[in-house]
Write a structure and sequence with these properties.
The complex is a heterodimer of chains A (about 325) and B (about 350).
Chain A (H helix, E strand, L loop, with lengths): L13 H26 L14 H8 L7 E4 L4 H7 L3 H9 L22 E4 L7 H14 L5 E6 L6 H12 L4 E7 L2 E2 L2 E2 H4 L5 H6 L5 E5 L3 H16 L5 E6 L17 H8 L3 H12 L4 H24 L17
Parallel strand pairs in A: 1-2, 1-3, 3-4, 4-8, 7-8
Antiparallel strand pairs in A: 5-6
Helix pairs in contact in A: 1-2, 1-3, 1-11, 1-12, 2-3, 2-9, 4-12, 5-6
Chain B lengths: L15 E5 H15 L3 E5 L15 H5 L4 E3 L4 H13 L3 E8 L7 H8 L2 H4 L9 E6 L14 H4 L6 E3 L4 H13 L4 E6 L6 E5 L11 E4 L4 E5 L2 H15 L4 E5 L2 E3 L3 H11 L2 E8 L4 H13 L8 E5 L8 H7 L3 H10 L2
Parallel strand pairs in B: 2-3, 2-4, 4-5, 5-7, 6-7, 10-11, 10-13, 13-14
Antiparallel strand pairs in B: 1-8, 6-12, 9-11
The chains are: A alpha/beta (about 325), B alpha/beta (about 350).
Chain lengths: ~325, ~350
């Protein structure tokens, strides 16, 4: 296991710390609620939980603006929530209701939201990297100062589309922030069994773009790197690559018996839970009280209950609409 | 083989000019880029080289490297980049050298271009045009010669068009670029030197209907692309024997314009399908199924098909010619029904 240290939190104000904590907790509680609703058969299909990796989505999202483009993987509830897609519309999507953020056409793996420029929810590993290149190309051609931020896992680095896309992004000097969420496993296959070079930032560096590895269990560290890189991308300095070293605490999906890893490994990583780490640090700094946590938990529990209620109250799209959205209607 | 001058209905517009199919495609792209700042072209060797088939020759000089973009040999990434640019407000034209190479981008075409509108519940459409060459007949062997348009026509979310005339090359590209959804254009590479007339003031032409290219009462030949020209020549040969074939140019494989060929069969009661794809699981099989579903009782004879033989296309000239649909095979197939 990589040995990592938590960065100094001296720059975090109390408000900012509370905001980061709340966003991570929202994701954690949302995922727990999703697992519960899956067990209750309210959610079906594949469900991939983000528990353990919350610091990555929350830290990176701090660096982005409303006009930026975001693409994510099939483990994207966290990114969607952090971006501002409502918990209710995500839960309704997973229920398959037409009030869902993709009208129930996508489910857990395919969350989309035009308003927040959230372009999925993409479930072909690596398949969304070329899309990010094209979105950034369009912005560059028009002179729009947007950043296209793309999240992908360590597994995607083994795909040809990763290498094609990084090459194009660098060749054309495009405003892309590549965020690799290295959670150590591509489904059940560990990094060492997938990659000849397990330092993924080094792989990206071969395309001559700035790269950095960051402790993905430390939200402040993630935020710091993301802000620096997003600013550079926005300033026309071309694509940047950050590798967030993180860990998925739960199974790959709801069908995973986790035969490929030791329980001790999981418990060791749980010692570095990103939420607990931030809480501990803020308490040490004197910027967080037990009362703050209690209040926050109560508010989030209410938000999640409301999300479930929204999904429950949602409606099924009429069967007559089945073949809609294959082609545009206007 | 030599290209045959197509027998087409006379144009109603008085002022015409003669172009090759290649020039018509180029002019269509040039005019689209003049009309719309969002249109740009990217692909392998489209700029400095002038295009593998010289379709984009001169466009780099006219529009510069920002809009005529040479890409590396990364079919998946540049096709996906076209999809991404389309999602983000542009109107890209992606050129893939041959449809065999498009298989390297099949993930992007099938899993992204065709699905994003649906998966997003109607939020994100993909106004992208992908042009690719198709077809055999130039001794390019089994990795440059296949006809995969029928495969792509299997996929909901795509539109698949097969312009066979110079006028359609120009007008269908125009319409494809105005379509809100992904359109794949298959250009049979033997057609690039075809000469034909386009109006001096050209206009967009629909991309979803078939055309009767030659009227006739005795048999309906349903075809598209290069096979249209072989079929028109076969029809002339048949006419000498007193058989009048009605030749239908499908123009679009998705959607298929059922009404045009069903109406024709209601008149002729006999049908031959000529398709440069392989027979098994092909667009010819789909058309045959639709005829059976919709016009079974109109038929006076079984439906016949002329397809490419079920081999990867061979290099040797005599073998390749034997593998592809040819005039004699079409004539024989028609006569077998009468």
């Amino acid at each position: 296991m990589t040995t990592l240290t938590i960065s100094a939190a001296t720059t975090a104000t109390r408000e900012h710390g509370l905001h980061l904590l709340r966003e991570m907790l929202r994701i954690r509680r949302f995922e727990e609620k999703s697992a519960e609703m899956y067990s209750a058969s309210k959610i079906r299909g594949f469900l991939h939980l983000y528990i353990g990796e919350e610091a990555v989505a929350v830290g990176v999202m701090e660096a982005l603006r409303p006009e930026d483009n975001i693409l994510a993987t099939y483990r994207e509830h966290g990114q969607a929530l952090a971006r501002g897609v409502s918990a209710g519309s995500i839960m309704a999507e997973m229920y398959g209701k037409q009030e869902g953020c993709a009208r129930g056409r996508g489910g857990s793996m395919h969350l989309f939201d035009k308003e927040t420029r959230f372009f999925g929810g993409n479930a072909i590993v690596g398949g969304h990297l070329p899309l990010a290149v094209g979105m950034a190309l369009a912005d560059k051609m028009r002179g729009d100062e947007r950043v296209t931020c793309i999240f992908f896992g360590d597994g995607a680095v083994a795909e040809g589309e990763f290498h094609e896309s990084l090459n194009l992004a660098k060749l054309w000097h495009l405003p892309v922030l590549f965020v690799c969420e290295n959670n150590q496993y591509g489904m059940g296959t560990a990094l060492e069994f997938s990659h000849a070079v397990t330092n993924l930032a080094k792989r990206a560096a071969s395309y001559d773009m700035p790269t950095e590895q960051v402790d993905g269990m430390d939200v402040l560290a993630v935020e710091e790197v993301a802000r620096r890189m997003a600013t550079a991308v926005r300033n026309g300095e071309g694509p940047h690559f950050m590798e967030c070293i993180t860990y998925r605490f739960r199974a790959h999906s709801m069908f995973d018996a986790e035969l490929y890893r030791q329980k001790t490994e999981v418990s060791e990583w749980r010692q570095r839970d990103p939420i607990n780490q931030l809480m501990t640090q803020m308490k040490t700094d004197g910027t967080l009280t037990e009362a703050d946590v209690t209040t926050m938990e109560r508010e989030i529990a209410q938000e999640m209950d409301e999300a479930v209620a929204f999904a429950e109250a949602g409606t099924w799209e009429p069967l007559a609409d089945l073949t809609r959205f294959v082609y545009s209607e206007n | 083989m030599t290209l045959l001058t197509p027998v087409l209905e006379p144009m109603r517009v008085a002022e015409l000019r003669t172009l090759t199919y290649r020039e018509a495609m180029r002019e269509a792209m040039r005019d689209a880029m003049r009309r719309d700042d969002r249109v740009f072209l990217m692909g392998e060797d489209v700029g400095r080289y002038g295009g593998c088939f010289a379709v984009s020759m001169g466009l780099l000089e006219a529009f510069g490297p920002q809009r005529i973009i040479d890409t590396p040999l990364s079919e998946s990434a540049f096709t996906g980049a076209g999809i991404g640019a389309a999602l983000n407000g542009m109107r890209p034209i992606v050129e893939v050298m041959t449809c065999n190479f498009s298989l390297l981008a099949a993930d992007q075409i099938m899993n992204n271009a065709a699905t994003l509108l649906h998966m997003s519940g109607g939020q994100f459409n993909v106004p992208l045009v992908i042009r690719m060459s198709t077809g055999g007949g130039k001794q390019l062997a089994a990795q440059h010669s296949h006809s995969l348009e029928g495969w792509y026509a299997h996929i909901p979310g795509l539109k698949v068009i097969v312009p066979a005339t110079v006028e359609d090359a120009y007008g269908m590209l125009w319409t494809a670029l105005e379509d809100p959804d992904p359109v794949l254009i298959f250009e049979n590479s033997l057609l690039y030197n075809l000469r034909g007339e386009v109006p001096l003031e050209p206009a967009p032409i629909d991309i979803d209907t078939a055309r009767v290219r030659r009227p006739g009462d005795d048999v309906t030949i349903i075809t598209y692309g290069m096979s249209l020209h072989k079929s028109l020549t076969a029809a002339e040969t048949l006419a000498e024997a007193g058989i009048e074939a009605e030749v239908i140019d499908l123009r679009s494989l998705r959607p298929l314009d059922d009404a045009t060929y069903i109406n024709s069969i209601a008149k002729t009661h006999r049908a031959v399908i000529v398709d440069e794809g392989w027979r098994s699981g092909s667009i010819s099989a789909e058309i045959m199924a639709r005829i059976v579903e919709q016009a079974f009782y109109e038929l006076d004879a079984p439906i016949a098909r002329v397809c490419t033989e079920e081999v990867p296309l061979p290099y040797a000239k005599h073998l390749e010619e034997a593998a592809l649909p040819q005039l004699e095979k079409i004539v024989t197939a028609v006569k077998s029904l009468l």
